[in-house]
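re: ur question from earlier - yeah i can do the single chain one, its not a big deal. heres the input i used so u can compare w yours
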Amino acid sequence: MEIGQKVKIYRLRDRLSRRNIAGKLGKTGVIRNFKMTDGSGVGVIVEFDDKSATWFFEDEIKPVE
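and the output i got, formated as C-alpha cells:
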C-alpha cells in the first residue's frame, strides 16, 4: 500500500467508531497517510470523494485496479 493508491473498503473490524464508518463499506477512496494503530500495527487514512477521511487496518482494504 502506498500514499495516493486507490482502495476499496471490503470489511470492517470491530472498533468503537464502527458506527461512523459502517457507511464506507464497499466505497472506494485514496490512501492519504499512514497511522500507528496499537503499537504493533499500521493503519491507513483513506479519503473519500465527499472529502471525509478515516483510518482502516490494512486487512480492511483492497487495492482498486
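The chain has one helix and five strands. not sure if urs matches, ping me
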